[in-house]
Design goal:
Elements (H helix, E strand, L loop, with lengths): L11 E5 L4 H15 L5 H14 L3 E3 L2 E2 L2 E4 L6 E11 L9 E10 L3 H15 L2 H9 L3 H11 L1
Parallel strand pairs: 1-5, 3-6, 4-6
Antiparallel strand pairs: 2-3, 5-6
Helix pairs in contact: 1-2, 4-5
């Protein structure tokens, strides 16, 4: 599975500015609601926040993979956001986060969910890929990096 199959161009946001973990999750839920209008934005936010309560999805090296399972979702949706300024996200290495790859996945499909998370984590282990994500200045540039590198 390629990251580019999960992310559409309008789900890639470069050079965004966030002030808190809460605001990031709100922004992600707003974007996801635009792509999945049949899901209430508040329900998406609740799913993301509930997962964060189990433990931070900040995996280290300035990267987080916030995700939520939701009934009614048929295919995984990924959103890629790169913040101009890293934000405290309670990551496992205690470093602030500037790359966010958020996932909204179907409830109950554990195998697909784990496969999707593994694909994303594997791609984000590539330091050059992360460097290119961070250097993208526009949404279009960010999306092109995703398409070219995944």
């Amino acid at each position: 599975m390629k990251l580019s199959t999960l992310v559409c161009q309008d789900c890639s946001k470069a050079a965004v500015l966030f002030s808190s973990k809460k605001r990031i999750l709100e922004f992600i839920s707003e974007l996801a609601h635009e792509k999945l209008p049949y899901l209430p934005q508040q329900d998406i936010l609740n799913a993301l926040a509930s997962r964060e309560k189990l433990g931070s999805t900040g995996i280290g090296r300035g990267i987080a993979i916030p995700h939520g399972r939701m009934a009614g979702v048929e295919e995984p949706l990924a959103l890629v956001l790169v913040s101009d300024t890293p934000v405290n996200f309670d990551a496992i290495d205690n470093c602030p986060v500037d790359i966010f790859v958020a996932l909204i996945v179907p409830d109950g499909d554990n195998q697909q969910h784990l496969k999707t998370l593994a694909t994303i984590a594997d791609k984000l282990n590539n330091k050059e890929f992360c460097k290119q994500l961070r250097s993208a200045k526009t949404d279009a540039e960010l999306y092109q990096v995703i398409v070219d590198q995944s």
